[in-house]
Amino acid sequence: MSQQTLAEALSLTSGTDGSLSARLTSDFSNAPLDMDPTRGAPFGGLMAALAARAAREGLAIAPPLQTLTVQYLAAARFETCAFTPTLLRGGRNVAFARIDAGQPDRPALSALATFGTVSHGETIKPLSAPLTPFDALDATPVDPALAPWFTRYIEHRFDGGPRLYQQNSVTDPTLRLWMRTTDHKPLDELDLCFLLDGIFPSYMTVLPAPPIISASVDLRYDFIEPLTPETSPEGWAVFQFTVRDLGGGWALDDGVAFSPGGQPLALAHQRRKLAPRRAQREIAPDPAALP
User: Which residue has the higher pLDDT, 132 or 226?
Assistant: First the structure.
């Protein structure tokens, strides 16, 4: 079977019961490139993007996405997955939706999405990014022992390299890079959902090798500006990912996305469950199976 395109992976088919279905393939596995992709699971950024699309298309919601919060209940299998959106409340300016996704006898995620219109008023924009000019950055491949299969759909330009294994310090535990999807189309809402989870956990830049494997449990995106084709015509966004805490078997990190011109676009906050040391070679363990 030929490799699935990103557009195909992000497409949904309407069902007769109000659900929408996506075909999940191992092309978007979170297993490293040097391993069998079926040992992994569909990566979290893809599942988040599908949840957002299911809410918008299934409920015919027009206003911009403001917030998406995802709980990953279990790793989905590489097969058809149903996404069922429910309108919790819909008004003229704000709409609230819940999205449940899963496969027979296996719930995969539960998500909440907030959509809202944008109006004119006071503006405060304290977020700013010290941008390294794109032309000054080289394409730097990630070690295939660590880079997941889904990264074949992403172009990366690291600021100072991938910074893996203690090249960052606790005093500056931030990974900085540019990313875009390989289809090179203008950046949109789904692309940003995809890219905000499109790189290894930032704690890997502070800890020594070998990498500690983890599974996403909770992921939240807050969008700052509605995306238009003019926001990033070539699809690039600038990202900063910072480890905030690691301990007790859990990790927390934050992310910020900016347009190529430095305009803040979105925030991300992610909680991961670390796999036990004895299970570190079990790629992307099922969150529901972790103690």
Answer: 226
At position 32, the amino acid (one-letter code) is: P
Rounded CA gap, 49 and 27, in Å? 16
Of the candidates 109, 141, 268, the residue with the CA atom closest to the CA atom of residue 193: 268
What would the two tokens of residue 52 be?
């957002």
Q: Which residue has the higher pLDDT, 145 or 184?
A: 184
Interior angle at CA 141, CA 48 and CA 165, nearest 5: 85
Mean pLDDT throughout 32-36?
A: 91
CATH for 6-117+132-289 is 2.40.160.210
Which tens digits make up the pLDDT trace of 120-144? 878 888 887 767 777 788 777 777 7
CB atoms within 10 A of CB 198: 27
Tokens read off for 181: 């999807």
Residue the block writes with tokens 């907030």: 114
Q: Which residues of 66-85 are buried (b: 16+ CB within 10 A; e: fewer)?
A: bbbbbbbbbbbbbeebbbbb
* Residue indicated by tokens 């789904």: 190
Say if residues 235 and 178 touch (Cβ distance below 8 Å): no
How would you classify the pairing of strands 264-274 and 250-258? antiparallel
Q: Which residues share a beta bridge with 156?
A: 179
DSSP of 142-208: PPTTTSBGGGGGEEEEESSS--TTTTSBTTB-EEEEEEEETT-PPP-HHHHHHHTT-S--GGGGTSP
CB atoms < 10 A from the CB of 244, how many? 14
Longest Cα separation, the chain: 54
